[in-house]
Each structure stands twice: as structure tokens, then as C-alpha cells.
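Each letter names a residue; the fold follows as C-alpha cells. Both lines appear below:
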Amino acid sequence: MKLIGPFKQIVTLANLPLKGKINEDQLEIIQNGGIIVDDNTIVAVNNFDVLLQENPTIEIEHIETEQILLPGFVDSHTHICFGGNRAKDFAMRLDGKTYLEIAQSGGGIWSTVTQTRNKTVDELKDITLKHTTQLTKQGITTAEVKSGYALSVDGEIKMLEAINMANQETEIDLIPTFLGAHMKPKDFDGSNKEYLEILVNQVFPKLKSDELTNRVDIFVEQSAFLVEEGDYFLNEAQKQGFQITIHADQFTPGGSYLATKYNALSADHLEFSGEKEIEILAKSDVVATVLPGASIGLGMQYAPARKLLDAGCCVSIASDWNPGSAPMGNLLTQASILATFEKLSMAEVLAAITFRAAKALNLNDRGTIEKGKKADFISFSTFDYSNIIYHQGQLQPTQVWKNGLLINQ
């Protein structure tokens, strides 16, 4: 065992509700705090001097400077395994070109698909690791990573193999998700339903036999897969025991209905969720994951995070880091900007990128600093926790611990 500290403040995020709004005065803040870790688990959190008095011979990992401690961040929606670059797309979008015009010029998602297909599994692993290094520096200790940029049986499996290989070589946790149902590939001659049937009949068994992932995602949208097509796909996924998440309500409503029907872990995007969609999400256990990076990248409205919270939803915030619509990849900056536009409390923002985001990944062993939880935490060089959101991502973590070990400083 070892005692780490003292910290100016420890913001534990313990004993907060999973759903609904959170006021600032609900936060538990331990002044001059310390944390005892045994192996990869938190054993105790309290005032540093009290812990030292109770454990006078304990090994101490001394914090020399003024630091604020938070749980490690969880980014529950990313696409960081991909080939190529789409800066040209972004320039064309700024110049007023439509999505169709960009696609017709050789850009769009198909550009990423082509470049991803041309990468080897080792190249994709290395790209994922490069992006993971950036996540670690930002204080993210757990991140979901989707496939979905190969859109072929062999290519999607290659992507998931690369993500799993990267997970073995990085110090943080990468959670793979199968998103072969991102869109029907241009080079597939059949219907949407026929493409989904191939995924169900050929890829699903491989996901199970090779233990590539137990999570399945689908983009439910008029430009991708219609609600009835998503209904078929998700019914098959549920029957085969997969955990479900959905790209929902990004441009038109409908996906959130499927999320509640199939008790998905999360419904992600929700920019076009209206009162009816918010109501059904609030009555369910589906996490409403909002993705401000996509709104910033596309220049469109934000998901109605304030209304979702006020209705009683569990709201998480994720980066959606991808080469097309959300290239920023900075979770803390995006969450801080969203807070400004949606009037979120600092407590709600911090909850949305820690334990509520962990819930979207079906992980209940992290996201708070309390006894029995995984020893994933991060520190910031400042005198008060409110400066972290106030600086809108400019203030980055000074130190990152994963499973109780200091991995970045």
C-alpha cells in the first residue's frame, strides 16, 4: 500500500446521482486530501494528515506542489482508429460546400474508408496508439474506440484487431465497439438490409469467437440506416447477447426510440432530440451521450443537454474524435464549451466525463474517488477545482495515475 498526497483538494464525485441535474453544493471536496492505494484499487480517501496518523509506516508518494485531484476522465465515444486525413473536407465546409459536394469531390466518409482499408493491422494499431497518447495527456484513463471505417467483413475485423492490439500496448483502457453499420459501403451492390444481414451472419459470430468485442453500434439516420433497418440489426444483436449503443437523433429523430426499445447502454449525439425523445430517454436507463465536438466541427446546434438533465436523464459528454466531423479530440475543451452554451454546472460537466460516462460503457468500477474503485485519477496544478472548467481545456493535467501507477507527468 501507498499513500499519495497531500492534494490541495480532492474532488471525489462520490455519492452523486446517476441521473438528473447536479448542484455545485452536492460535490464532496476533501481539503488537504490523501488517497491510499493498494495494487490497482483505492483503499481510503481522507485528509492526508489523518491517513498518515492512522498509517504511520505507510509508503508515501509525496506531492510537492499545489494540486487538485479528480477521477480519471472517461471518453465514451471515439473513432480514433482510422487512416488518412480530411483537412480538405473541413476547408471545403468552411468555404460553404455541402456534404454532398464534398463527397462528390472525393471527400467525406468514403475517403476515410478508402484510406483505412489500405492500412495494415499494425499500421492501424500504431495510429490508434498515437491518438491514445494524446488522450492520456488530457487525463483520459478509459476510452471507447469504434470500428466503422472499413465497412467490409475483413476490414472491420482488422480494425477491431488493431484496437485490441493497441489496448495491450497502452496503459489506459480501450473499449472496442463494432460499428460496421456506420453506413452501407459504396461498393456493396445490395440493399441496406442485405448489408446488415452480412454483418449479423458473418461478423457477429467472429466477434464472439475471437473475443473482439461485446459492444455493437449502428448509425440510425436517413443518410445511413432507417429506423426499421436498425430495428432488425439491434434485435439480432440483442438476441446474440451484445451490449448496444446507438448513433441517434444526429440530424433527424428516431434513433432514441430504438435505444429505449432495446435498453441500449447509450444513445449518442441527440442534436435533434425533441421533447418526445427527451421524455422517453428520461424514463429509461439509457445514457444520453452528447458530442459537442461534432457540433463544433459541423457548425450545427448542440444536443439539448440542459433539457435532458432537467428531465432526469443520465447525461455523459464524449469527444466523438474522428477525422471528419469532430477532429478536435479534446474532451475537456468540448465539455467546457458545451457548459457555456447549455448552462451546465461544473458538477454536471465533471460527472458527465467521469462516472456517468463510465455508465455508458457499463463500467461501474471507475469514475469516482472512493474506497473500492479503480485507482484511476488525475491532478491539475491549480488552487481550486473550478479553474479546470473555467480555463476551458487550457489547463491540462499535471499527472495521470492508472491503476494506482503514475503514467504521465
Q: What stands out?
A: The chain has a mean pLDDT of 96. The radius of gyration is 21 Å.
